Amino acid sequence: EADIYQTPRYLVIGTGKKITLECSQTMGHDKMYWYQQDPGMELHLIHYSYGVNSTEKGDLSSESTVSRIRTEHFPLTLESARPSHTSQYLCASSVPGTPYGYTFGSGTRLTVV
Amino acid sequence: KNQVEQSPQSLIILEGKNCTLQCNYTVSPFSNLRWYKQDTGRGPVSLTIMTFSENTKSNGRYTATLDADTKQSSLHITASQLSDSASYICVVSDRGSTLGRLYFGRGTQLTVWP
Fold first, then answer.
1. Residues of chain B with pLDDT under 50
2. Which one in A9, A32, A110, A112 has a CA-CA gap of 20 to 30 Å to B53?
């Protein structure tokens, strides 16, 4: 059972609204990630963090921002949602130095109308 | 360019039958290859992880193979069940950076019919 939690699971919101997608993990992992996935497409890394106060942009340009104030918490924020932001957002965490223990959350399906 | 290609894009099989999914990659330098199962609307769940020196690994009815020379992997599912219906994603990690960057395939959408 995954120990990484994302809320909400589904979100439908109007254009221009500010939203925050929550991601929390209880495994004490230093590394955390946000991916964006459109239907039938591969996951794209949009943000990652090596630890507290560390955040970096990923491969895919995103208008979202992230913060890492606590090890277990890695929220993603969109200041002004647009229909182009409609997608599935997946959070993940991992242990450095090993491929094992790379765990994904269940995702947030965001629809901007 | 580092890429991961999966085939087929989609597959329909009858319950109880076996199937094999393919993954070709160009990621270099290679670190490990992972197969994930992703149910609709859920996050990916790890099935197997193989490093350079491993050429086969099993997890119940799932058996993955790796040929690092030809840069190919396969995932064999035995005696399929309705619950196997999902997207199966091949993920390759490089060892060229401290991030251990992951390269994702687009997945094979498997549907198992009763």
1. none
2. A32
